[in-house]
């Protein structure tokens, strides 16, 4: 009989936990807000472009600025333009 009572109690606890978890998840879903603190540093617009070029010196015109960089042979070069300049990375 003791074992049956323990099993019954375990089942009741599981049911209570399930109901509690469901209520908690519903509450979180209804009240969840995104953390927008870092969104303030994102740019208002983003523009992308891609171009296949031959290896060697290349010029990139961004607005009134011209950036020169070298594209190694047999590699892909990625560029990221930001207000303070451009960052380049080449990968094989």
Shape: elongated
Tell me the strand order in the biggest sheet: 1-2
Strand residues, percent: 25-35%
Average pLDDT number: 80
Count of helical segments? Answer: 1
Summarize the biggest pleated sheet. 2 strands, antiparallel
The helical percent reads 25-40%
Low-confidence stretches: none
The secondary-structure element order is HEEEE
Task: List the topology elements.
Blueprint: H1 2-31, E1 56-62, E2 65-71, E3 76-82, E4 85-91
What does this structure look like?
With 92 residues, the protein is of the alpha+beta class. It folds into two domains: 2-32; 43-91, no CATH class. Helices cover 33% and strands 30% of the residues. It has one helix at residues 2-31; strands at 56-62, 65-71, 76-82, 85-91. Strands 1-2 form a two-stranded antiparallel sheet. Strands 3-4 form a two-stranded antiparallel sheet. The relative contact order is 0.08. The mean pLDDT is 80.
Keywords:
92 residues; alpha+beta; two-stranded antiparallel sheet; two-stranded antiparallel ribbon; 4 strands; elongated
């Amino acid at each position: 009989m003791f074992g049956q009572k323990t099993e019954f109690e375990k089942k009741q606890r599981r049911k209570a936990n399930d109901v509690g978890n469901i209520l908690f998840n519903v509450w979180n879903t209804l009240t969840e807000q995104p953390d927008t603190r870092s969104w303030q540093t994102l740019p208002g617009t983003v523009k992308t472009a891609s171009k296949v070029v031959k290896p060697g010196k290349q010029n990139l015109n961004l607005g009134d600025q011209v950036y020169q960089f070298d594209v190694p042979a047999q590699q892909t070069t990625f560029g990221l333009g930001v207000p303070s300049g451009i960052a380049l990375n080449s990968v094989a």
